[in-house]
Amino acid sequence: xxxPITVTxxxxxxxxxxxxxxxxxxxxxxxxxxxEEHGVFVPQQYIKDGQIVLNIAPHAVQQLLxxxxxxxxxxxxxxxxxxxxxxxxxxxxxxxxxxGQGLFFDASEYPAEHEDDSSLSSDQELSADExxxxxxxxxxxxx
Length: 143
Description:
Blueprint: H1 11-24, E1 29-34, E2 51-55, E3 61-66, E4 70-77, E5 80-87, E6 91-96, E7 102-104
Antiparallel strand pairs: 1-2, 1-6, 3-4, 4-5, 6-7
């Protein structure tokens, strides 16, 4: 009896490993993000062509958290502290600013997320009062 083995995506593990390697070599880690991916919370004014590159060096960010689902931190943009939240599936690459070495990821590792409109029939419409605005992700410090 052969049961299929389900494995987790490699991207979060590789992101953490490359981040550590870049820092160990005294280089500057840059995170390339698909800013159009659902759930990404980054400063909108710095997005170009649907992408944003963020410096995630230890001196540039505070409260950096990298887990299997997301990367989150606080950083200053134009002198204003802002929270950043990036789902792992939105990370396109992590590389060193100085030499471009790092990893770039295949978008097909994570299936595309689409809004599910199948619950509404074609003659149903929701008013603006019935539609709940999406909530922004938030981060908090746990003691």
